[in-house]
């Protein structure tokens, strides 16, 4: 799950126009670029940043949902949620591996996350306050993520595209899992219905923000499109998401919290109200409700685990020495 | 009803331990372990579900797996004390897992001869899971025991802290004794030699020794738990209990 | 100190009769933990029945700068392909 809005291509390069032109021709011909291929420095930097952000989003994304594993209200839901959060960890792992093919280490990326240098999707800076949020996160947040991620399976960079194919395959159960939770609540007791509506009220706008700023305000977006790292614009994907999601909410009898939401026959899509961009930038800049807690939790896991990683390394060294002595 | 009660004991062991491991999710020492631990938790929770469901059927009062998991309080839970011990650190968590799996592996192998078809079914699946848990937790115990000074100290502390809960694994409650006599469940006391052997193999490589236990703690099977279980259950059951009769 | 745990490449055989195929990579301190991590990360949905792990550092790769001299000379050796030879249709498949 990632916010493409935070990601723009780094267009700066020192390469010759001939080299850039030849590279562009390969991309235009839908040739995949592999890690050892010659590539513009800007392309490499953009990918390192984007894949890193994407990986961080998966890892930080484990926290808001992990918050409810121990309270899941049935054993069936508990198992499914645990498997889902585990998947997010796996996706982070595949993505870190893809970024590592470009010469950055996971440790480096992890340090950048902890220092605040690297960003992750802002959606995870919102708190999960009820069991319904687990449904909504699966339904809306994973739904928005899928809109973003399916085009990434065709990304020009081979390792990223391959990781995304695996991610998308695994992720197909996530959104269904979420929708099933919300559906059960929407068809349940009054209190459960209220819980579902309250959750939709809180997550609708942040979910729309996942697609990033308006196309006009999105820096370097054109370069990313040209390099086929990105295949659709922020607004295109957002519109697609709204058009797909509104009928799903209606089916549940839930109300999308946007008074300006209206079907527009002419464009064959919904018109909608304006996103609170102040809130968007506030959270991006680190002032969301959960920004500090999320990084604190990640740092704590990393720092508290240092002695375990050191022990594993020390033991591996001992094993090697013993094996050499035996030979 | 003795068999119902004995199955609940077994189911409670698996759910409580699975829950404890799931508390790690997103907080493991490395990403690879954030993938490994949920696999173990899912194995345990899966086994508990089958056992609860079967217990509910045998009881015949229409209690579902969730009724049994979510509506019994700490005095009604009959898990052994080992599984409810808090995670503490990675050393405690892996040792607790090794101790439990080293017991359950021969248990499930013996349970393949159960007179109860569901128990035989669980036994076939769970013994493979437990074999892997022994390997995974065992390899970690070896690495931590024979790693750095700090990891070795932590590992020894874990051994010291958890060994007083081992003897209870081999006790059979009156309900379990009946189930054993009826050929439904294996005799717990018979599994000690196998457990000792597994642990000795791991400890030998981990440079650890099993301490003498001056006084073994017991009581889980009578619902006499440590203080932590009540908190675990309060958290686990909070949503379910706040909405009586709701479907999820 | 940045503790860099070695990187491993993971290969999985989906079922007997097929070759092991590269599926991704992971970090682990030694080969036993690498195998276990590969099992836990890459076979959660019944993806295979055999796993190989290889230290990434042990792979010797061809030099992309030599790709042309390595792989292009083969392009005009069309007589290595069956379609180079003309056999009358009535002779049948060969």
What does this structure look like?
The complex is a heterotrimer of chains A (327), B (248) and C (94). Chain A is mainly alpha-helical and 327 residues long. Helices cover 66% and strands 2% of the residues of chain A. In chain A, helix 4 packs antiparallel against helix 7. Chain B has 248 residues and is an all-alpha fold. Chain B is 66% helix and 0% strand. In chain B, helix 2 packs antiparallel against helix 6. By secondary structure, chain C is of the alpha+beta class. Chain C has 2 helices and 3 strands; from the N terminus they run E-E-H-E-H. A 3-stranded antiparallel sheet of chain C has the order 2-1-3, covered by helices on one side. In chain C, a hairpin with a 7-residue loop joins strand 1 and strand 2. The model of chain C has no long low-confidence stretch (mean pLDDT 93). The interface between B and C is small, with 10 and 12 residues.
What proportion of the residues of chain C is helical, as a percent range? 10-25%
Shape of chain C: flat
- Largest chain-chain contact? A-B, 47 and 50 residues
Mean pLDDT over the full residue set of chain C = 93
How would you write the strand order of the largest sheet of chain C? 2-1-3
Kindly state the mean pLDDT of chain A as a whole number? Answer: 93
Beta-strand content estimate of chain C:
15-25%
Question: What's the CATH architecture of chain C?
Answer: Roll
How many helices of chain C in DSSP terms?
2
| Distance from first to last alpha carbon of chain C | 64 Å
Overall spatial form of chain A: globular
Record field, number of beta strands of chain C: 3
Q: H/E order of the elements of chain A?
A: HHHHHHHHHHEEHHH
Uncertain segments of chain C are none
The overall strand count of chain A is 2
Q: What structural class results from the helix and strand content of chain A? A: mainly alpha
Quaternary: heterotrimer
**CATH homologous superfamily classification of chain C:** Phenylacetic acid degradation B
Helical fraction of chain A: 55-70%
Looking at the structure, the CATH topology of chain C is Ubiquitin-like (UB roll)
**Radius of gyration based on Cα positions of chain C:** 21 Å
